[in-house]
Amino acid sequence: MSARTLTLVAVSLTLGLGAALMANNWLNGRLNAAPDDNMKNVVVATVEIPFGQMIEAQQVAIVRMPKDAVPDDAFDSNENVVGKIATFAMLRGDVLRSARVAEHLGGSTLASLIAPDKRAISVRVDDVVGVGGFLLPGNRVDVLATKRSDGSSNESESRTILQDLRVLAVDQTAGTDKTQPVVVRAVTLEMSAKEAEVLVKAQSEGKLQLALRNPLDAQKQPPAVAAVEPVKVAPPVVKPQPKPVAKGNGGVGAITIIRGTEVEVAKTRF
Prior knowledge:
Elements: H1 3-31, E1 39-45, E2 60-66, E3 85-86, E4 101-102, H2 109-113, E5 119-124, E6 140-148, E7 156-170, E8 186-191, H3 193-205, E9 207-212, E10 252-259, E11 262-269
Antiparallel strand pairs: 1-2, 3-4, 5-8, 6-7, 6-9, 7-8, 10-11
């Protein structure tokens, strides 16, 4: 073997060994590198999760996001989310937050959807009261009550008794992905204890009607108040003043006095 060939082989071995060492150092550096402090693990939905549905493991995944873009109540582990109940409908890619899920402590999933200070009341409905079947869990409604006017069998009055109530379930379904109208027999609404008393009383006095609200409309109208007629004040009573008696001016007059058959004329001054 010539000297030139030996030189080329030595150069090739040297270059190959140097490249291997550089690659090994780069890989070790990547493997031993500390995680980026600006990134954080976040649990997101991989599919659409309907309102009222229990979250399953195949519906969520972990992604890394910049810390500044992660909500404070976001979850960083699948184990902390699986088994909870979605209190809001979630789309694919939504970050799962504690404010949008509830613990399932046993029993029906509906009980987990109720806020701690609220109650669930079911209202019997038909295709008219149920807004033509367009009521779905998660919608918000107003309740109108109609009853006969006092002393009249032909006239009735309607008024809004409750506003901005959340629909928890329709019939026995707390979660649905349907968008077509479905005629149901009962609607379960979320309300406070005081509102529940108002609803039960109105239901016993007359008929109820539900009005579907736009989800962006969070304003409540003040309750209607009947106009109060101004009180009429009676005019003050003016007492008649006695007329002053004119004083005499020294004139002389005559007065006729009759006693039985006798007639007497007397003079007097005035």
